[in-house]
From TrEMBL:
Pfam families: PDDEXK_9
Superkingdom of the source species: Bacteria
InterPro entries: PDDEXK_9
Protein name, per record: AAA-ATPase
Species per Swiss-Prot/TrEMBL record: Candidatus Magnetoglobus multicellularis str. Araruama
């Protein structure tokens, strides 16, 4: 019969592992996942989001300021791109609709910015990053991506389940999971980056879960979140770093992972992000320099916060440590903090909060210096 069967079939949500199985017996299919002409099919453009916001605002269903909503969504839901030649970045449509639905329920900022439906369960990654209760090479790659915020890799369109552990296949899975987005090309491969704050928060959670899953590092998250609350509202910052330092000393397995400055910095970021009082910026440009950690207060969500933080971290291997070198590094950190605090970005984003400047010095995994830097201003003596 002329009308029987299917003339066209469009399949979405197919992982590269499934694709390998599907196409083995279905040899007339075309994988269009990386085609430029369907890029905008995968999410909302900025103009589309503004149109949705205006619609609900004009209908009296959305009372929050539209520019305010757009700024938040661009930080938390934006920067997706699914083709190397695409000119338009996209916002995650699920996240946008979730935010608007939550915002329509009242006049306040939505309490939860991350929809449970977009969270990639850690259990989906566990079998890829652990073997026999040990962290494998893919965990190191995941950790490197989080700490560097990017990776250069090919994107494999399909592969059998037996090859899922290979590096490029693992990175490709992170892309298909939505944890990485195409930001261009570099050295003949794709430049893949963490797209937004939502994914950044999820990634930090995977690092914490990975350490805990294989008994490398387990801590009381409830107690830790209380310490971050005290940092935000009371300016009581030292207990957080002292607690982590004490736990590192007790749980010796974690020490093997804290073997350079970038790793220590990433480790701290993973635990500073247990709660979302701060938008943590790492290696961000501030007044022609790059700060180790800027804890920008999330004033939009927590308008009564009282403290923000600039943290400068210095690292020495255990074999090269000396008190003289430590003092030189402390002085260097002081000069850098004096430079960063003058940044317009810091001045504008700290709002009404009091900015504290913190210096941390590590000798390998050991925290040897943990103090607030208070600049001594010279006063002219009257005659």
């Amino acid at each position: 019969m002329p009308d029987s069967g299917l003339s066209k079939l469009f399949i979405t949500g197919v992982s590269p592992v499934t694709m390998d199985d599907v196409t083995s017996g279905f040899n007339i299919g075309t994988n269009v996942s990386l085609d430029t002409n369907i890029n905008e099919f995968m999410g909302f453009t900025e103009s589309e989001v503004l149109e949705i916001l205006r619609y609900y605002h004009q209908a009296g269903q959305l009372s929050l300021d539209l520019d305010f909503c757009m700024d938040i969504m661009k930080q938390w839901y934006n920067n997706y791109c699914f083709a190397p030649d695409a000119q338009t970045v996209l916002l995650n449509s699920d996240m946008v609709l979730y935010f608007i639905l939550q915002a329509m329920k009242g006049t306040k900022f939505p309490r939860d910015l991350i929809d449970q439906n977009v969270k990639i369960d850690y259990n989906k990654l566990r079998y890829l990053i652990t073997i026999d209760k040990r962290l494998n090479g893919n965990f190191s790659r995941l950790k490197g991506i989080i700490f560097d915020q990017e990776i250069i890799s090919n994107i494999e369109k399909s592969f059998p389940v037996s090859e899922v552990m290979k590096q490029e296949n693992f990175v490709s899975l992170l892309y298909y999971f939505g944890l990485l987005s195409i930001q261009g090309e570099k050295r003949g491969k794709y430049l893949l980056k963490i797209p937004n704050l939502t994914i950044q928060h999820l990634m930090y959670g995977y690092i914490r879960s990975g350490f805990e899953d294989v008994d490398v590092f387990k801590i009381d998250m409830w107690e830790l979140s209380d310490m971050i609350t005290n940092m935000a509202y009371d300016g009581d910052w030292k207990p957080f770093f002292q607690y982590l330092s004490e736990q590192i000393e007790k749980q010796t397995a974690i020490r093997d992972y804290l073997n350079d400055e970038k790793v220590v910095q990433g480790f701290l970021l993973a635990y500073l992000n247990v709660v979302d009082y701060y938008i943590t910026q790492s290696e961000s440009e501030l007044n022609k320099g790059y700060s180790d950690i800027y804890m920008e207060p999330f004033i939009s969500k927590y308008p009564d916060m009282q403290y923000s933080y600039l943290i400068e971290l210095k690292y020495m291997t255990r074999g090269k440590y000396s008190e003289k070198i430590q003092m030189e590094k402390i002085q260097d950190a002081q000069e850098q903090l004096d430079q960063y605090v003058k940044s317009d970005r810091v001045k504008n984003s700290m709002a009404h909060t009091q900015l504290k400047k913190i210096i941390l010095v590590y000798k390998g995994w050991e925290l040897t210096y943990c103090e607030e830097y208070i600049e001594m201003k010279t006063q002219k003596q009257g005659t």
